[in-house]
Each structure stands twice: as C-alpha cells, then as structure tokens.
Amino acid sequence: MKKIKITINDKPYEVDDGQTIMQAADKLGFRIPRLCYHPKLSIEGACRVCIVQVEGMRNYVASCAYPVSGGMKIQTNTEEIRQARRDIVELILDNHPEDCHTCERDGVCELQRLAHLTGMRHRHFEGEKKHYDKDLSSSSVVRDPNKCVLCGRCVRLCSEVQNVFALGHAHRGFRTVVVPAYNMPFKDSVCTACGQCINVCPTAAFVEKNFTQELYPKMGDTSLIKIAQVAPSVRAAIGEAFGLEPGRTMELQTVAALRRLGFDYVFDTQFSADLTIMEEASEFLERLQGKGKLPMITSCSSAWMKCVEQFHPDFLENISTCKSPMSMMGAIIRTYFAEKIKKRPEDIVSVAVMCCTAKKYEAARPELMVNGLPGVDMVITTREIAWMIKSAGIDFVNIKGENFDEPLGLSSGAGAIFGTTGGVMEAALRTAYELYTGETLMDIEIQDIRGLKGVKVGKVVMDGKEIRVAVAHGLGNASKLLDEVRRDPNKYHFIEIMGCPGGCVGGGGQPYAGSNSIPLDEECLKKRAEALYGLDRSKTIRRSHQNPDIQRIYKEFLGRPLSATAHRILHTHYQAKKPCGIIPRELQVR
Amino acid sequence: MSRKYSITICDGPTCLHKKSKELESAIEQCLKEHALTDKVRINLSGCLGMCGKGPILIVKPGYTIYGSVTLGDVAEIIEKHIIKKKPVARLAIEEDHLYNRFFRIFGDVNFFGKQLRIVLRNCGIIDPESIDDYLSVRGYEALAYVLTQMKPLDVVEEVKKSGLRGRGGAGFPTGIKWQLTAREKNSEKFVICNADEGDPGAFMDRSTIEGDPHSVIEGMCVGGYAVGAQKGFIYIRAEYPLAIKRLEKAIADAKAEGFLGDKIMGSDFSFDIEIRLGAGAFVCGEETALIHSIEGHRGMPRPRPPYPSVQGVFNKPTLINNVETWANIPVIILDGAEWFKSIGTEKSKGTKVFALAGKIKNTGLIEVPMGITLRSIIYDIGGGIPNNKKFKALQTGGPSGGCLSEEYLDTKIDYESLAKVGSIMGSGGMIVLDEDTCMVNIAKFFLEFTENESCGKCAPCREGTKRMLEILTRITEGKGEEGDINKLQRLGKLIQKASLCGLGQSAPNPVLSTLKNFRSEYEEHIKEKKCRAKVCSTLLGYEISEKCIGCTACKKVCPTGAIAGIQKSLHVIDQSKCIRCGACFEACKFNAIKRI
Q1: Could you tell me which residues are beta bridge partners of residue B192?
Q2: Fold entry, domain B540-595
Q3: How far is B336 from chain A, CA to nearest CA, in Å?
Q4: A266, A311, A574, B43 — which has fewest CB within 10 A?
C-alpha cells in the first residue's frame, strides 16, 4: 500500500493511501464523532456529524466518505468545526423527544452520548417536532418514528445485509420517515422480525415488543407453574448488559437469577437443541436415502423461516420439518414434563429467554401449537431479562451459580454451539455421522464451517460418501447461497442458515453495544461465539445422542427419532406467504 | 394566391395558458372557410420567449410577429395578411430594427435585439416535430462532421477549448467533465441529459426541448462519441408532457434516419437514447440523486467522490450535462471553439438562457451573451419596471440563488461575478422585484420551497431549513426576537458548509443574500414590527381617511367589531380590536382605508 503524508490538527502523519479520512484518523487515535456511519454498511454521509475541515475546501467534509490524499491538511477539532458539529447534533436533538429518562435506551443511546460529547448544554433552534404513532402491530419489533434520527442504518442493514428490503425512506424534508412499504402495519410487511434494525439503531426508533409487564402478573400467580428455558447464546452475551467484557459465559448465574426472579423450573434450550439434532440428523439421513428432497435446509431460525416463506417458497420442500429447539422445548414442557409433574398443560407458564426477537413471532405461530396451546407463552429477550434482573435488584455479576433443572437441563457440547453460525451443522454432523456409519466422528471440531465468513462450505466423508455442506448467516448471505443452489441443485446435501449475522449470538435481542463498542462488532460476535465453543470443549459429552437425558426421553416418551409421537409434537410444516410489498425477484434493484 | 404562407403559433406554457390552442383551431377553421388549407402551413413552435405579449403568431415569409392575438383577430389576419397581403399593423409588434447572427428578424422587435440566440437558435424558426426542418438548418451536420473528421479525443479538446461551462448551475467546465469521463477505461459508459428542471418559474430547458429537440439529441450523440458511451438517458420530469412527446418523436425520427442506433451514418459508432421520467422532485436535478432515480432507487444524493465520471449510473462512468449545455454542442462543433470563445467574458463563454419574470414589462425567455449587464437585461430587454415603481432587487439562480440590490445592476453576467456579489448563475431563473416586495417575505418564499423539497437525507438541510423557515415565519408575523438574525446566519452558514449536496449547500442563499443586502428590512420587522413594503399582513395597520363617506361597508365586514361610526359620517378603527385581517380594506369602494 502506498504511503502518503497528511496532517491532522497540524501534526504530520504518514498513512496508507486509499482509505477515508475517518479510517485514517481512527488508526491514529482520533475518534471523530459519528452517527450514521457503520463499518458493515454502505457509506450514507447523511448525519454530517463526522465533518472535518480540509484546507483548500470551501465546505466541511464528511470524514466517513472522503478519501485521504497526499498533502491533505485536516482539522478535526477547531472551534469552528466543534460549533458546526454541535449545531448539527442540536438540530437532530431538536426534532427528537426529550424523554431520555423514560426511554428504553436511557444510558445506552448513541444520540445521548453524542449530545454529551459535543457539549450540548442549551438549545438555540428549538421548534416543531415530528409526531407519529408508534407501530405496535408486530409481535416482535416496535417501530417508533418519533425517535428516529434518519441515519438510515436500519434501511441499509435491512437491504444490504439482510436483503429483506422491509424498510425505506418515505416523504421528503422534515416529513421524511422510515416506513415499511406503503406504510403498512409492520406485521403485514415483509419484515422477518430478525431485529437487526434494533441492533443498529442508535436510538430507540426500533425496540423489541416488550413482554415483561405481561410476565410480572403471571409470576405473581401462585396457581401457575413458572418455567423458563434459556437459549445458548443468552449466556454468552448477558454479561455485557452488566458491564462485563463480551465473551464471558454467565450460564450458571443466569439460572440462579431466574430462580431468584421466581421461576419454578429453569430448563436449558441446549437440551432441546440436542433433541433437535436427534430429529434433524435422522431426517437428514432419511432424505439422504431418497426419502425427501436434498439439500436439506435447517429450520431453527425463525427470521429465516419467515424469509423462506416469503422470498424463497421454491425451497419449502427442502426445509427440515423439525421445529426449532425453543418450540421443541415448549412442546415437551406441555406434554412430557406436564405429565411428569402431574399438572395440566394450561397451568404452566412457559417462558423462553432468547437472544432473538423473531422468536416472539415464532411463539405466536398457530401451526406450532401443541394440543391447542402454544408451546411457549412468552419470549423474553436477553435485554429484557437483563433489565428484569436489574430491576429486581439481583446482584447478577456476583451471584453464586446454580445448575439447570432436571430432566430438561442437561445438554451436550453440541447443544451449546447451536448459538453460533455453523454450530447446528457441526452438531448435526457429529450425530449424523455416527447414526450413518455406526462409528464415532473423532475429528469433532469442523473448522471450515466456523467463523464469520458469509457463506462457509465443508465436507465430511461418511462410509466413503462425500457429504457437502454449506452454512450461511445473515439473510443476505442466505439469498446468495440459495441462488447458488438454484444454479446447481446437487451442489450441497445439507445447508444451515441463520437469519442473523453471526448466528444467534448476534441476535436481535442481545444487549446493546456499550459505549466503547459498535453494534454488530465482529470482534464482539467472535467472543460470544468463542464462549459457546468454550462451553462445548468443557463438556465431556459433546454429541447430542450421548446425552443421557435425551436417551431417557426417547425411552420414556418419544420412542425413537421421527416416531409418530415425535412427528406430532416436534415437527411442523411451512407455507408460502405473500405479504404486500414483495418485489418480484426479476424486478429487484440491487 | 401564388405564395405559400406559414403561420407559426407559439405553444409555450404561457401562450397555451392564453389560449393559443384555441387560436390554432380558429385559424384552421378560418383557412378552411377560405379554402386556403393547402396554401398555408400551420406550425407550433415551442416557447418564443415573449411570454408577456402572448399569444404570439408569426407569419412567414416576412416574419411578421403578431402579439396578444385574440380569437376575434384571426379572421382579420387571414383576410388582410394572407389574402390581401397586407400585414395587420394594429397587431404587429414593432420596435427597433436589429439583426444578429443567429436570430433572423422577427418583425422588428427590440426584445430580441440585445439577445444572442445560440441555444434557442432554432426555436420558433423550425417545426420542432419535423426532422426535415432540423436538417434544413444544418441539423446533424455536427454529428456527421465528428464521425467522419474527428477523433473522440479531438472532440473533447474542442469542447475544452470552447470554454463552455455547465449550464445546470454550478458552471463546471464542460470539456473537463468530458475529459474525465473519456479517460475512464470501461467498455460500458453512459451519457445523461439532465432535463429535470426544478426551479419554480424556470422553463429554459422545457422550451429548448419543445422548440428544438433534435439539437439536444445531436449534442448527446456527439458527447457519446467523444467519451465512448453507447447509451444516453434523458431524465425529464413527467410534468413536461409536450417536451416528452417531442423528444419521443425526435428520437424515433432520428433512429429512422440513422442518426441514432447501430453504426450511425455508416460509422463504427452506435448510440441509443432512452427517456426516463422523473416524478418532479427538485433534488432529482442533483446529479447523484438523478442517477439513483434512473437506477430505480429513491432520488437521494450520495457523497462524492466518486464522481459520476468515474462511477455514475449503474456504477459505470457517466457524462451528465444539462439540456442547455447539450444544445450548445452542435454549434461549437460547426462554428468552432474559437468562434464560441469569442462570445462572453474571460471565464464564461457563450450565452445563457434566462427566464425573466417578476415586476418587469417584458416577461419571458431570453438568451443573452455572457457579459451583458443586469441593467441591460432589465431595462433594454425587459423594458423596465411597470407602473412607475422603483426597482428593488433582482433575484437570480432560483431558490438556490440570491437577491441583488440596485448597486449591483452594472455587474456583468458571468459565473464568477454573480458569485462574488452573493448570488449565483444557477440554471437561469431571473426575477425582478420592485418596491412593493418585502425582502423577508421573498426569502421566506424561497426557503419554503427548498425546505419542502429537501430530500430529507442529511441533517443540516432537513432540520436546518425547517428551523430557518420557522424563524423567518415568526419574523414576518411580528414575533421576531432579538438574536433571530444571528440564528439565521449561524444556521445558514452551517447548512451551506455542512450539507451533503448542492441543493442543501445553496438552500440558505436567499436568506443570507437578503440579510447581506437588505438587513435593515429584517431589523424593521423584528424591532419596529414594521413591513415597509406592506406585505406581511400581521404587521400592517389600517386607518380610515377623510375619503370615508360613511357607507358602513367596512363596519359590516369587520369580524371583530373594531370599526365604529354611524351612517354618512367618518368611521374609525379601534386599533386594539383590529386583527389586521384586511377585510375592511377589500370592502371599501372609496379607497378610504389606508394601510399603515
């Protein structure tokens, strides 16, 4: 890379050519304030917060968009640019509700931070503010345009990363607003409920549909049995909400805290992940022997399922019929476990603590009901449960850890890695290999399908038969992978797709990025994933079929994988959906 | 009757409004009655520029111009001029007699005397829907010449040498733009004609296309050849149906004649043009927003670099010029850069088309050489201010421009000089304001437009113009506060220097330029709650003078009962009750009520 000489704030530096002013400044330790910029998204240049002065230029320059060049003289912190930046942030604030102390994001809001660091102490230009109704229609994501600062991150994320195109700008000028197509209720739009808009939103223009207030009365009802299940990646991220570094596993503390909150039983979704593997691996082997379509595609990710139904109905037959681990756990609680504790299924409150917003949508899907009851009554995200723990005054960081309850609390390492991209595939192969060959797969960690590359491919040889697998995370990567399969239907045997970047560890319900971090930071996602891989390594049982409680439930209740009982309560089917606003593939502008 | 006559009817927007369409049918009807249909040809012309005197008819040969023609005049014109061969003196527009190179004499009209029509050279001369007419005025000769005699880079050199600058507003040297696009190594390139004329009251591009569509097409073909593009887009707003219709016909005719399409005129150069319609957003005139719109996205600008010459439509190198720029190209090729360069000032060459409007006798479309003074435009071409009113300001450059006071009237028009005195050339809007105009109100008017047309992408423009408009509104409503002028200046400078695109960067110009040149009017509004032009209604008071005969009409309409008085005696307004609605002023038939 060619080196060039520039000055920043009158000091000379040598930097690489071919980067933006912001990139060069970042590396030199000048963190220019910013708002609409996000490293994973295209350059918008909209907020103008990151402006700097460049000698010889009439106007200020958006440092996120402007390339450095040799001899460039940059000022990032003169009185003039400080005032301009401050005024821009004020203009944004002047059209933003002044309700920080009642806002969901109070304290973890990028706009609040910007106001602080630009030194906003009074307002000069206040006037009319925008006023819109909140869109509460979706079961997962609440849209509040009043808090929107029009940075466009959600729009870019939804189109560029997720390829869903649920959001766009409408109207002009002061009346500009981010809306779904035709300003329809969110629930009728193409939104897959992945919640990534929440993750990238700097304010609270998108938040999850909060169920905590509906949960409290149930927690107080002594006639009900309160059962929680905890998704794998919740434990890998919840610590961040309490100020801990990303990647610290808080598994046992979470269990302890949930008991303190009043749950009678705390089960592990990793247990039902093992159950999913039993069913899914068996289904895969059936398909491999000609009973069903290949490649088989996983169905654990709820956002992905809505995405398939809307955008890729031609792949519905390829989708595994297995319910997600959350829904399997819900089904087992309502049947097997209710019977075991001799309670009526309707007397159980089934709560799922998830890293995911789309699971709220999944829980409400009628086709997943078991004997007329939803498997899961309520889904609470990592953020919501962290708030409940704080609100209850539980000392989460220092609490003494406790173990999950039997008989649905014991899991293998395979169940743990479900929470990260490639994990389901790895877990499934560990079991499928043994079911197919009768031998144990010794090389248990399949490195090719780990990591944050958008589409990963790998292969395993089972009894001389080469099994080609592919893994995609993020719905945009999923589309790319499916296009590849459309061109060559025999290319892969088995495909794992997760709706969120990084898999569940990057879910739409995970803690907000802290003050020194950015949303969807790859380093953070890697650390969360590493926490789950660490859990896997720490277990003696690392294959789902070796989990003794899994073996027991088949013996006592389900019979064998894909049995009639298993099909009735652990499997489902998906149907093509046509919500308004879907652009036919051939007309899409990319 | 041995001679063949032709009657050209102006169908520019103003003449259409003044019933030129009805005139056309009346003439047809009258010719039929006299069995002259075969002997007289009727043409439509596109805007001739003399909007103030519309509807306009030109009878050729002889080029007699008739103005303000009514349906009742048709029979007289046919019977006297066509049959008896005696022009109707009563209707002819007659002023000083002047010639110039490009404009044949249209009667003897001073309106055209100081003009130099290069871009509008064929407007009103030829039938815009006839490719034969265009060919008869050396049409497509420039294209033939470059295809046979010039290498692409020679064409770029020639345009560079001519000193032509972008007529869309910013005045970027056209030749440099061509060079930047030509040097990109990419097998696929595009050219775009920006016909998204968005300034309120501007109709330069529309008239050029309506009057002479082929010159734009020819210009684009030459540009396509020079930079190595295979395809052109004309981006035009859907609200210009006549221009679109004429472009469609012109493109079809040019294709049929082999001036567009594969291997043009037997050369190796293939070029096609497609029309893309815009929905009429002001911001889509900004090149990157326009490109997004062509691509099918929402029309919002993006940061530059990369410039369109490197990454334009569909990420391919793209040469984008405005209608007026394109229409200059065939002339530059035919008459040479040297000749073109001889017109204009040191840094601004050629001519500029302006839409002259406001408080001026001759409103309309004019084309003048660069370097002409503003005074000459207003008083020689425009005929001065009507009703013996005093000149107050000249607004140039549309909503992105500024207001110049009398002291700047001797400024010679070019890009630099206008910028130096705080306005811009812009795309060519020119509005004359007289003493009855309130400068705060006019600034508010323009800001209302930009605030409304802001695309909403960048914060300074979206939020800042809104706040500036709020401040201006409260000043005009008598609620201005100490410090408001400073706030306007602070916001204005911020929006200028921090906005993403040219629209935002120029949005505060009307406010900043009036603050510079007419600051005392702002101060009067804020401190004395007074509007000297008597425009801001809430700052006006009403008073009943001696002329009052006591008819009680004002008393009856007053909504607050502020007027007291009995029949046949002088009435009085109670100022504490008056809400300054102006109803009494409208009701008084005796001019007894005065604004104070």
Answers
A1: B233, B320
A2: Alpha-Beta Plaits (3.30.70)
A3: 35
A4: A574
